[in-house]
Design brief:
By secondary structure, the protein is α+β, with helices and mostly antiparallel strands. 38% of the residues lie in helices and 19% in strands. The protein folds into five domains: 53 residues, Helix hairpin bin (Helix Hairpins, Orthogonal Bundle); 229 residues, D-amino Acid Aminotransferase, Chain A, domain 1, CATH 3.30.470.30; 97 residues, Nucleic acid-binding proteins (OB fold (Dihydrolipoamide Acetyltransferase, E2P), Beta Barrel); 146 residues, DNA polymerase, domain 1, CATH 1.10.150; 80 residues, Rossmann fold. It contains 25 helices and 22 strands. Helix 12 crosses helix 13. The two termini are 35 Å apart. Bound molecules: 2-(butylsulfanyl)adenosine.
């Protein structure tokens, strides 16, 4: 193939990719499998790699490409981004309609109804059909340029599917789907990070990331709801504008409807009161807009909002119920977590019987007491929460709830460390803590002991067969056979999985120990820096916090962990049982010793952590940025700017297949 043929083919492949991307992200109706899609992407990456001059700004290979930035640049909107006036009931809507009618001298008015997506307003600018800028609303006059982050959003076309010359601006709402929001908060709670109150805040956090790769992982989408600056377009109505946007490749909302007059609009609102909870994204109202653009123009706008549109806001769905009890559970790190047990009640489409109370301060702030009548809602339509107590219903004298001063599991004293909101059971041998920490130790990201899960751990604890993680390595076949539902075959498999885990890379053990604040990433950094658990155990907080990305919180908690006798004892016993506590030493010659790798883009046959582990097992190192010292850059689907940098610096580039060949030959 010469460059002329390659140019034609690259364009063909790009068109196919755009087509399938649109079917998947905009129409929710894919025609081909992920693997077929990836194959197209790989072909394009290969073509653009061989002939870099074929790479275009609107190429689908450039979605995750933006480099890390230090901050955001401010941009001025061509037309101000004003917001909407609100209406809360039918009367207010009739008032709005009267104002519209009188300004239009009694003309008939058609209204468009659209869901009001609870996300954040975005402006996208296309120049001759290519996305050149994406910005936040900001103060309405100026916003922040977040183009690289918005490029990662699958439902935003990088180039238009219709020929629109010149400058073309569209406006819409970027949002986080409800399920992505719930998963994100779950991960944040596990990591001890503050939770997002709703999908809107989560989406706002995601688009303001300095690293577009993080935005890409947050699974955002965008509904487009209006034209912005679009001089050359001749459309008569808002509805036609939406159709045009849809043809141009944007995701527009399928629940958009047009009605003549305000009464049918009001009738239709009733159906939305329930329907909104069935949507996979959160809406906080319905926007009602005058359909004819010419009428819109005559109506004009005030400083704050257009006179031709109004937002009907739903009252947030709440329900009243009784707190039947407050349950306190103990987690792996000893944190006591209170949960309100509620009389079951229907909220936002499902029955709620528990609500997280998070910590002592929140209980005190809300003054939640057992027996109280309370108002509950769901954050982001999904996470049940107590909004407030109704103290007027307290007739019997009720007691202020206080968290237990002793651990509900082991009875030992609990402490509230300075500067923290949580109470902790400090007893390392606390049965509840032990159970949770064993579950963590064997989990997939940690020691990955297949076949040992919560129910087996419960049995082992009940029979006093394990008292800490090290005991797992002393289990015999007889021990396992004495348990319920374990036959000889599964006993052997379990023992084999336990044995195999002894040779895990060091970071898995570090992560598995369950040191506070030490997630998988920190464990890898620590393993890479110290190369041995003993060296890590001796490190002072200064040395620890000098490691890039290791902050004072991690440093402090690592130091505290190793300062405790009981932890040192368990580690000693783990080592005696043969668990590797050293990074495979550099002396043993390994095929990839001293080689540094950078991974970019999604790999098809293995995950990033798997690829990293293989490289590390073979003596190589995985680093995050490309420099002239990098030996290899491995590129997967949608490789980023690292790929371009590698090309520029002349670093050896591996496609996934090359990389697998290398690993296979190295493993031999
Ligand atoms: S139209 C000039 N349509 O609601 C009018 N806005 O309070 C521009 N929003 O800033 C807005 N869904 O962020 C419009 N279907 C929709 C919307 C919508 C959500 C947001 C938007 C706007 C805010 C107004």
């Amino acid at each position: 193939m010469d460059i002329t043929e390659a140019r034609v083919r690259a364009e063909e492949v790009r068109e196919q990719i755009d087509y399938h991307n649109h079917r998947y992200h905009v129409l929710d109706d894919p025609e081909i499998s992920d693997a077929e899609f990836d194959a197209l992407m790989r072909e394009l990456v290969a073509l653009e790699h061989k002939w870099p001059e074929l790479r275009t700004a609107d190429s689908p290979t450039q979605r995750v490409g933006g480099a890390l930035r230090e901050g955001f640049v401010t941009v001025r909107h061509r037309l101000p981004m004003i917001s909407l006036a609100n209406a809360f009931d039918a009367q207010e809507l009739r008032g709005f309609d009267r104002r519209v009618q009188s300004a239009l001298a009694g003309e008939k008015v058609a209204y468009v109804m659209e869901p009001k997506i609870d996300g954040l307003a975005i402006s996208l600018i296309y120049e001759d059909g290519v996305l050149v800028q994406g910005a936040t609303r900001g103060d309405g006059e100026t916003g922040e340029d977040i183009t690289p982050n918005l490029r990662t959003v699958g439902s935003i076309p990088l180039r238009l599917r219709r020929d629109i010359p010149g400058i073309f601006e569209v406006r819409g709402e970027v949002y986080m789907p409800k399920d992505s929001f719930a998963r994100l908060n779950e991960r944040r709670e596990e990591a001890g990070l503050p939770l997002f109150a709703n999908p809107r805040n989560a989406a706002a956090g995601a688009v303001r990331q300095l690293d577009p790769a993080i935005t890409a992982r947050r699974n955002l989408a965008m509904f487009t709801y209006a034209l912005g600056f679009a001089e050359n377009l001749k459309v008569k109505t808002h509805y036609e504008a939406l159709e045009l946007l849809s043809e141009a490749g944007f995701k527009t909302n399928e629940h958009t409807r047009v009605f003549w007059g305000i009464e049918p609009v009001i009738e239709h609102l009733v159906a939305w009161q329930d329907k909104r909870f069935d949507l996979p994204y959160m809406i906080d109202g319905i926007v009602i807009k005058v359909n004819y653009l010419e009428q819109q123009e005559r109506l004009g706008a005030t400083m704050k909002s257009p006179r031709w549109a109004i937002a009907f806001k739903f009252t947030p769905e709440q329900a009243e119920t009784t707190v039947e009890g407050i349950l306190v559970t103990v987690g792996r790190t000893g944190v006591l977590t209170p949960t309100a047990v509620l009389a079951p009640v229907l909220v936002a489409g499902t029955t709620v019987s528990r609500a997280g109370l998070h910590n002592e301060d929140i209980i005190r702030e809300k003054d939640v007491r057992i027996g109280d009548r309370v108002i509950v809602h769901k954050a982001g339509d999904i996470i049940p929460e107590i909004v407030r107590v109704l103290p007027e219903f307290r007739n019997d004298p009720t007691e202020v709830f206080s968290m237990p001063r002793t651990c509900p599991s082991c009875g030992s004293e609990v402490l509230r460390p300075e500067g923290e909101v949580a109470l902790r059971c400090m007893n390392m041998a606390c049965p509840a803590r032990l159970r949770e920490s064993l579950i963590h130790f064997v989990s997939r990201g940690a020691m990955d002991i297949v076949g040992v899960g919560p129910s087996l751990i419960d049995q082992l604890l009940a029979r006093d067969l394990v008292r800490d993680a090290a005991d797992l390595y002393l289990l015999s076949e007889g021990d396992l056979l004495s348990l319920e539902r374990i036959g000889p075959k599964s006993a052997q498999n379990t023992l084999e999985a336990i044995r195999k885990s002894k040779d895990n890379p060091l970071y898995r053990l570090i992560f598995g120990l369950g040191i506070r604040h030490v997630g998988e990433r920190a464990a890898k950094l620590l393993a890479g820096h110290f190369g041995s658990l003993d060296r890590m155990a001796c490190a002072g907080t200064e040395e620890l916090s000098a490691i890039p990305e290791i902050g004072p919180a991690i440093a402090g908690s690592v130091h505290d962990f190793f300062a405790r006798d009981e932890n040192r004892k368990v580690i000693e016993r783990l080592k005696n049982a043969g668990v590797q506590s050293e990074e495979q030493s550099a002396e043993t010659e390994k095929p990839l010793n001293g080689k540094t790798f950078v991974l970019t883009g999604g790999l098809e046959s293995l995950t990033r952590p798997e690829a990293t582990e293989l490289i590390e097992r073979l003596g190589g190192r995985v680093v995050s940025s490309v420099s002239k010292n990098t030996d290899y850059v491995v590129i997967g689907k949608d490789p980023g700017s690292k790929y371009q940098k590698a090309v520029k610096l002349g670093v050896t580039i591996f496609q996934e297949a090359d990389f697998k060949d290398l690993i296979e030959s190295a493993l031999r």
